[in-house]
Design a protein that fits this description.
Structural class of chain A: alpha/beta
Radius of gyration of chain A: 33 Å
Shape of chain A: elongated
Largest sheet of chain A: 6 strands, parallel
Distance between the termini of chain A: 67 Å
Number of strands of chain A: 20
Oligomer: heterodimer
Mean pLDDT of chain A: 91
Strand content of chain B: under 5%
Number of strands of chain B: 2
Largest sheet of chain B: 2 strands, antiparallel
Shape of chain B: elongated
Helix content of chain B: 55-70%
Strand order of the largest sheet of chain B: 1-2
Helix content of chain A: 10-25%
Low-confidence stretches of chain A: 1-11
Strand order of the largest sheet of chain A: 16-15-17-18-19-20
Largest interface: A-B, 29 and 33 residues
Distance between the termini of chain B: 35 Å
Chain lengths: 447, 294
């Protein structure tokens, strides 16, 4: 207060708003007249004193009329419904976007979240960091999948069951929060769940997110030992509408892709390694895909690929498995399925839903040239493509396998127009082969 | 009677020379003294130009007819010299380690040679000690194939047993790297195979080893098929491993080292440190988990 006991005016005090409803309209006329006649105090210290001479008198009449005739200064205001309206700041009951902002399409969607496909070991290799597209991010099947991170889950190369999510905003001054629909979902600022890095929820909503400028990377964990799905909403802290939403689902299945001799998963993928091209395609579609060198499966089926499946079934509640491979990777597909089938009692309940060979060769060693003609034990559906070896491919070939699609024993691609004269080294690269396997896998197996 | 072979004092070079020369097709005889004074032979395959050219000619054959002609010529060359042929094929494959087509060619020739498991192992086992790591890898691959293992059956070590038994009966030290290779593959089967190959006769000597292996195998079986947790520990297993870790035969102790490497939770107090200080280098070399600091 100054020496006269008055509160200094200026700043945000609106002298034209005589009833303090944040509007300049006819409802201000009567209080103005009262103030003019009685010199009564208005609803604010500056009410009616449009010329700023600290009194309401005749010199304020003309400016008051001009004020009423000019539009009230408004800016974009996002309501709880997510709708944008023009409001003066005090009248904005939602999120006020700032002086001079306008309502244009997307005004209220000033922040968003992007989820990524699952990690592998210490990062994303042999995949690349792949964002879930806007079109899929809230789809319960093709949206972001998350591995159940229950106690006992084995991560020999480091924690990789958390899903990366990036929060981005064009309004860094506006506080943001997250809301979840299932408490199984936890959020961290570190990928390894370091102590103190968890973002807590209260009644399934966080406090202000610790954004750093325009973005924040968070890691999403599914910490319950049960299947489920959850929506994660990004909201303005001050409003109750969703800026963006991700719908996570826990993986129910695991897909194992086994390359041929001298084929190892790499970034970028070799376009002539059809098994891995297909694997990446499935990864992008939302499957929990694991690419392996065929030698990661020993002749008795043991190895890192086996360990991955066992861990998935035993600790991540996965109950559907798919395995496919080319050449020696086909032989390893058999060996892995054989081992998994043998060891069921110690692993848990699961089905080998889909398997596929492409010119499969038994894989008892790098020099094993025997055609893999055995159907993968217990496979619910098996696809088989092969060609007949010749001088051109050092007599490497697969062959007919009982009860394989196309029935009865699979397809000799050399009998087709597109595959005539194919060699062992080409058969995995035919789009027709990849499409056939992909279509039959995706129609039988949910992520 | 307990026979301890390779943990004795270092063998003399002349003794090793005699062993290496007996292999045939080996170009260089050498001895390396390791830190523990246990000599390891260095083995090489001298390239035989005739074989190497014949194999290379197959790969460059322009058409099926010339391929078959050249293959027939190579098969004739190999006739009666199977061991030489296998070694030269191994050398060729080792030199083409990044060429799957060439390796497939070698696989094809071996198939056409109709090599038995025992012939393959007899020719390649010495090359587990080959100076060239690529040759060692080829030998390991082809020998693994000879084991004919699958999820449904344990590896067949009969070819290894025959070689080791022949050495033991002749009073020679069996090839240590072959024994180590077996334990890498399947410790339980390796232990049981060696009990036979080493010609043990006294039931009182045989039974403790058999029993210990049985106790360990039983726990692993119960783990595998879900009768106990995957990392369940049985005090009886720890006791048996403890006993075997003090056994005078180095290969029995190697069994313990391999089991503990795969299942560190089965190591009793002090076991890892004792294995890490074992007089036998092959036992010492196996990583034994955190206690060993490896």
């Amino acid at each position: 207060m100054n020496e006269f006991g008055a509160v200094p005016r200026g700043g945000d005090c609106d002298s034209c708003d005589l009833n303090c409803d944040a509007l300049h309209d006819v409802l201000d006329v009567a209080p103005f007249v009262t103030a003019l006649i009685d010199s009564a105090a208005g609803c604010s210290v500056c009410a009616g004193d449009l010329d700023g001479n600290e009194s309401v008198d005749g010199r304020d009449v003309q400016p008051f009329i001009e004020c009423l005739l000019s539009p009230t200064p408004t800016s974009a205001c996002c309501l709880d419904s997510g709708q944008c309206v023009l409001e003066a700041e005090p009248a904005c009951s939602g999120v006020w976007l700032g002086h001079g902002t306008m309502c244009v399409p997307g005004s209220c969607a000033f922040a968003g979240v992007t989820a990524y496909r699952p990690q592998h070991g210490t990062g994303y290799f042999p995949f690349t960091r792949t964002a879930v597209s806007e079109a899929h991010e809230d789809n319960v099947a093709t949206g972001p999948g998350v591995r159940i991170n229950a106690p006992g889950d084995d991560d020999p190369l480091g924690e990789d069951d958390l899903v990366e999510v990036v929060v981005e905003t064009s309004q860094p001054a506006i506080a943001l929060a997250l809301r979840r629909t299932n408490p199984a979902l936890r959020v961290w600022t570190t990928r390894t769940t370091l102590a103190g890095s968890e973002i807590p929820f209260t009644n399934d909503r966080t406090d202000t997110l610790p954004t750093n400028g325009n973005s924040l990377t968070i890691w999403v964990e599914w910490a319950a030992a049960e299947q489920g799905d959850v929506e994660l909403h990004l909201e303005p802290l001050a409003a109750d509408y969703s800026l963006d939403v991700l719908r996570f689902h826990t993986f129910r299945s695991i897909v194992m892709a086994l390359g041929g001799e001298d084929q190892a998963p790499a970034v970028p993928v070799d376009p002539n390694q059809g098994t891995f091209v297909l694997a990446i395609d499935l990864y992008r579609q939302g499957y929990d895909v694991h690419m392996h060198d065929e030698d990661h499966v020993a002749a008795d089926g043991l190895g890192t690929a086996y360990a991955e499946v066992v861990d998935a079934v035993s600790h991540r509640m996965v109950d559907e498995v798919s395995i496919f491979g080319y050449s020696h990777g086909g032989g390893s597909t058999h060996d892995l399925a054989d081992r998994l089938d043998q060891d069921r009692a110690g692993i848990g309940v699961f089905e080998i839903v889909v398997t596929s060979y492409v010119d499969a060769v038994e894989n008892d060693s790098d020099f094993d040239l025997s055609r893999e003609l055995r159907r993968p034990p217990s496979s619910g559906y098996h696809a088989n493509h092969y060609q007949v070896g010749s001088f051109a491919d050092v007599f490497l070939d697969g062959g007919p396998v009982p009860d394989s699609d196309p029935q009865p024993t699979g397809r000799n691609v050399e009998t087709t127009a597109w595959g005539a004269g194919a060699t062992h080294f080409q058969v995995d690269d035919f789009p027709q082969v990849r499409d056939f396997v992909e279509m039959n896998l995706t129609t039988r197996l949910m992520p | 009677m307990i026979r301890e072979k390779t943990t004795r004092a270092a063998k003399s070079p002349s003794r090793w020379s005699a062993w290496v020369i007996g292999i045939g097709c080996i170009g260089l005889v050498s001895i390396v003294a390791r830190g523990d004074a246990q000599p390891i032979p260095i083995v090489l395959i001298s390239p035989n130009d005739v074989y190497q050219a014949a194999i290379g000619a197959l790969e460059s054959a322009p058409d099926r007819m010339s391929f078959e002609e050249r293959l027939a010529g190579l098969l004739m060359l190999c006739d009666g010299h199977l061991k030489t042929a296998i070694e030269q094929l191994a050398l060729y494959a080792a030199r083409q380690e990044n060429n799957p087509r060439a390796r497939a060619m070698v696989g094809n020739i071996l198939k056409r040679l109709d090599v038995s498991r025992h012939q393959m192992v007899a020719a390649l086992a010495p090359h587990l000690d080959n100076q060239a790591s690529a040759v060692v890898e080829v030998a390991r691959e082809l020998m693994r194939e000879s084991e004919d293992r699958s999820a449904e059956r344990p590896p067949d070590f009969s070819a290894y047993r025959a070689l080791i038994e022949a050495d033991v009966r002749a009073g020679r030290d069996p090839q240590a790297s072959l024994i180590a290779f077996m334990f890498e593959s399947e410790p339980g089967a390796a232990l049981l195979t060696l009990v036979r190959a080493y010609q043990l006769r006294d039931p009182d000597e045989i039974k403790p080893i058999l029993w210990a292996e049985h106790v360990v195998a039983d726990l692993l079986w119960r783990r595998r098929f879900g009768f106990v947790e995957r990392r369940a520990v049985d005090p009886a297993v720890i006791r048996e491993l403890e006993k075997l870790s003090r056994h005078p035969f180095w290969w029995v102790r190697l069994y313990v080292a391999r089991v503990v490497d795969a299942c560190p939770e089965l190591a009793g107090p002090g076991l890892v440190n004792r294995l890490s200080a074992d007089p036998n280098v092959l036992v010492r070399r196996v990583p034994h988990g955190p206690e060993s600091g490896e």
